[in-house]
Amino acid sequence: MKKTIFLLHLLVFSFSIAAFSQTDEEKVEAVIESLFDGMRAKNAEQVAAAFSPEAIMQTIAAKPEGTTVASSSVGDFAKRIGSTPAETQLDERILEYQIKVDGALASVWTPYRFYLNGNFSHCGVNSFQLVKMAEGWKIVYIIDTRRKEPCEE
Where residue 34 sits, what CATH number does that domain have? Predict the structure, then answer.
C-alpha cells in the first residue's frame, strides 16, 4: 500500500513539474507574442528585446515593376513603434504558428492580418528565424510579405 501511495505521489509530482515547464516551441511562440504585444503597447524596449542585437528585418513588396526586398534595422523599427502617436492603434493578428525547432535553431511561419486603428490594412506571412542564446530565444531574422488580398481568415 505504501509503495502504491508513493508511486501515486511521484506520478502526480511528475505531472505538476511538466505543467510548469515550457517546451522550446512554447518559448519561441512567447517571444513572438511579446514582440506583437510590444507593438500594440507601442513599447520600443519590449519590441527590441525580442531580437538579437544583429537581427535582420526585411519585407517583400510586389510592385508593378517587380518584386523588391526592403530592409530595416531593429533599432529603427523599435524607434518607429515607440514614437507612434497615442491615438494610433497597431494590431498584428497572428492566425497560426508553424514552429520547427532543432537544437538552438527555430523556424516559424506565421500568417497574419494587420489592422490600423481597427481597420484592416494588409495581410501576409512572417518568416522568423530564432536562435536560443544565453538569455533565451531571440529573433535573428524576419522577412514578411504584405498584400491586400487574398487573405486567410
Answer: 3.10.450.50
